[in-house]
User: Which sequence fits this backbone?
């Protein structure tokens, strides 16, 4: 990414498409040296995590970052590119998770169950997204948001009530197909000091699928269709007058976003070998997604990568860091209490407020502003 | 109806009416617009000119009556579907995509006409042809050097030109201009009028023009219709209409005095 040519303008229509990287990134390059470097670092670290760190926590964190990059990027397609505020995004995330969990638990721990689970989840998400879209995207934005909130709440209640199918509040634990189980060995000997087991394969499944879905979303927002979404966000009335059917475009954006979130949910469940209300369906995840989009930078796609990486890392390690700090400051009045691990959410909140105040365009917006050349 | 409307009209309204509560904003307006003619629609403020336009282009739904384009009844269609049938409209209040570049504004219009909006897996800039067409339109409205500037940073006059550019890029059969020179400085007006005249000269475009400046109306139009209190009160040759007592009383008396 750092070798890409400098691009003088945000919308430089004169530039020719060419080159593998430009193609993969759909001509939407990071356009900032610092941003290119950070993105490259994140991708390399995620790709190499199983070989760089020992223990299960780093790989678990990396897998969660991959899943959230897809989840947040798909939400950015809605919020940042289309100007649609939906609170039902975790519902689609949950549908993906439950699709996999129910199929693997109730049918069999095989690849065909994964396929059946994912296909049914995608179908259900598409139907729901179309229904919500056609019924409510005609109304004013605030009512659409309310409707998504109501539908998402109903889905959460339904998931916890239908415990025969969903496992209720306890969720569902299940076995993965044999090739993804920890006992599975691809080679008898370790590679670079790491045994290639099923757990590692599961990680790379999550990584590769996340990468593909992210690049696909990046392509979609830079397609003629994606340009129409941005036009609708800017001036819906004019887009309609230009001959674009606003309701149809918005509904399509909702469906694409919902399908990507469903895939993310499926990956999350596959990685955790479990799905329950707290891992995919809860409203607190919805708030996390919003924070990640805003911190990273709305309407940039790359903001999703940075927002998700930063947020998940903070979630996983801020407590540890604060615990160490608190212990180090033992004896001094007030300070150890202030950075006690239990206060991590307070500090996360403070970080959020500071970042929104200081960088209204998110981290990506700030980096592009500071260093427009890539 | 004048003799010139005997050929198949490009656009026709039949008994077009809209009521807002007890107020009839457009009252039973029947009119045919022939290909290759420029019709000026005049009338005092509040006469229903813009409302009449909104009924034709679909932003408002008629209480009764019909809108017919090229023989097809489009009364029930959404604005986007009417646009696809050849109705193009430039708005009275500048109505653009404020954060996108001038070129992107026009390219979106070209892209709509080319029916390329549903392409999801191509990168937009691989359609060089659409970009080149958009650039040609910007050239025509003399905004080529400002193609990378967003409308919010353009002068009012340039925004009006961009509005006209979007309409030209749509290549409609019927061009609807709603006070295209409103708020423009005196030296910018001729450019826009030349563009409208140019559109009329090329092919058999049907042009509808709402305009307050009587010298503009007189020099450009083939025909004038007069709306007053939502009703069509005069229709015909510009010189005749301007001279008619009903127009003098309803509209022009005031306007001439102001000029």
Assistant:
């Amino acid at each position: 990414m750092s070798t890409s040519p400098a691009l003088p303008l945000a919308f430089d229509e004169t530039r020719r498409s060419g080159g593998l990287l430009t193609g993969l990134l759909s001509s939407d390059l990071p356009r900032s040296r610092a941003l290119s470097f950070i993105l490259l670092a994140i991708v390399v670290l995620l790709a190499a995590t199983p070989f760089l760190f020992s223990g299960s926590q780093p790989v678990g964190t990396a897998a969660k970052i991959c899943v959230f990059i897809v989840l947040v990027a798909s939400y950015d397609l809605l919020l940042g590119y289309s100007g649609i505020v939906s609170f039902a995004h975790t519902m689609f995330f949950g549908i993906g998770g439950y699709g996999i969990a129910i199929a693997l638990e109730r049918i069999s721990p095989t690849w065909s169950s994964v396929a059946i689970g994912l296909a049914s989840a995608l179908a259900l998400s598409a139907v729901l997204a179309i229904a919500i879209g056609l019924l409510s995207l005609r109304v004013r934005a605030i009512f659409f948001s309310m409707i998504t909130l109501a539908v998402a709440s109903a889905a959460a209640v339904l998931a916890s009530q239908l415990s025969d199918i969903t496992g209720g509040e306890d969720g569902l634990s299940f076995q993965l197909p044999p090739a993804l189980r920890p006992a599975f060995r691809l080679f008898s000997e370790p590679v670079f000091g790491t045994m290639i087991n099923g757990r590692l394969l599961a990680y790379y499944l999550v990584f590769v699928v996340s990468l593909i879905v992210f690049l696909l979303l990046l392509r979609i927002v830079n397609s003629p269709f994606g340009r129409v979404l941005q036009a609708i966000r800017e001036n819906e009335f004019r887009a309609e007058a230009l001959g674009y059917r606003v309701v149809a475009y918005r509904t399509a954006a909702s469906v694409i976003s919902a399908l990507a979130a469903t895939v993310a949910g499926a990956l999350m469940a596959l990685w955790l070998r479990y799905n329950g209300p707290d891992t995919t369906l809860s409203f607190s995840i919805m708030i996390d997604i919003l924070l990640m989009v805003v911190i990273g930078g709305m309407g940039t796609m790359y903001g999703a990568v940075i927002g998700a990486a930063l947020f998940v890392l903070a979630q996983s390690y801020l407590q540890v860091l604060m615990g160490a700090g608190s212990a180090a400051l033992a004896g001094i009045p007030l300070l150890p209490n202030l950075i006690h691990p239990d206060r991590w959410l307070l500090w996360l909140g403070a970080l959020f407020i500071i970042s929104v105040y200081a960088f209204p365009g998110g981290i990506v917006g700030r980096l592009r502003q500071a260093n427009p050349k890539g | 109806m004048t003799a010139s409307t005997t050929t198949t009209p490009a656009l026709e309204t039949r008994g077009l009416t809209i009521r807002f509560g007890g107020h009839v904003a457009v009252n039973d307006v029947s009119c045919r617009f022939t290909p290759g003619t420029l019709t000026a629609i005049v009338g005092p403020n509040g006469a229903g000119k813009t409302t009449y336009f909104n009924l034709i282009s679909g932003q408002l739904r008629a209480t009764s009556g019909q809108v017919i384009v090229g023989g097809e009844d489009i009364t029930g269609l959404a604005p986007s579907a009417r646009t696809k049938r050849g109705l193009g409209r430039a708005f009275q209040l500048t109505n653009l995509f404020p954060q996108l570049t001038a070129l992107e504004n026009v390219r979106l219009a070209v892209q709509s006409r080319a029916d390329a909006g549903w392409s999801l897996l191509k990168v937009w800039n691989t359609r060089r042809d659409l970009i080149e067409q958009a650039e040609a339109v910007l050239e025509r409205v003399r905004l080529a050097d400002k193609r990378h500037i967003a409308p919010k940073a353009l002068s009012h006059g340039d925004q009006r030109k961009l509005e006209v550019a979007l309409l030209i890029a749509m290549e409609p059969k019927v061009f609807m201009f709603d006070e295209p020179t409103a708020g423009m400085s005196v030296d910018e007006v001729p450019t826009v009028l030349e563009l409208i005249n140019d559109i009329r000269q090329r092919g058999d475009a049907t042009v509808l023009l709402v305009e307050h400046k009587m010298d503009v109306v007189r020099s450009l139009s083939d025909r004038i219709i007069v709306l007053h209190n939502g009703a069509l009160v005069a229709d015909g040759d510009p010189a005749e209409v301007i001279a008619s007592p009903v127009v003098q009383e309803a509209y022009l008396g005031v306007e001439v005095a102001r000029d």
Q: What stands out?
A: The two ends of chain A are 8 Å apart (CA to CA). Residues 56-82 of chain A form the longest helix (27 residues). Chain A touches chain B through 35 residues (CB under 8 Å).
